[in-house]
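pasting for the record
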Amino acid sequence: MLILSLLVASAALVPAQSAPPNVSRENRELIQGALADFDSKDYDAALVKLNKADQSMPEDVFILNLLGAAYTKKKEFAKAEDYFKRALAKQPEFFPAKFNVGELLFLQRRYAEALEYFEGMQKVDPRNELLQFKVFLSELQLGDKEAAAKTLKSIKYPGDTPAYYYAQAAWESKNGNNAKALEYLKGAKYIFGPKTALFDETFEDLGIKLR
């Protein structure tokens, strides 16, 4: 569940499908084109555009985060981590890059490290539904059902994001109740529409397939 762009408004997932403000027309078009490449899963094309934008906007945290996201998709995790950390060196509290460092751990199935990382972020922002979701999934993947059940109860219903519904779906799927899990997913998509895309990505990464 890579965060490509800014999250705004009290942990509500609102991926900004646009370039950052105060950029040239050319760079805006490059960034918008790169975001379109992400949608079509053409990460090499995205990298070409982002590297060009990076030449005229060096060390821009938005671009650095997108570069890291593209390398993550290509499973070049060392390069991805370098870009995320460069973004954080410029802006330590830039949430997308900060989150994506933890996501790298999760994607590499380093769930114990991911859990520790996301719990650290959660101490600063305990009501962030996305962080709660990632803590829950890390606990679930580690087989700590007692901790996962406790975290699941703490996720706000109905919430500002699809986190509650997808957490419930993951729980039901883990327990072999795929029909119930699918009900939660249908509810999420009915309520949140395209905001479920990031959560679908996580299920895909985990191999959770519900039909």
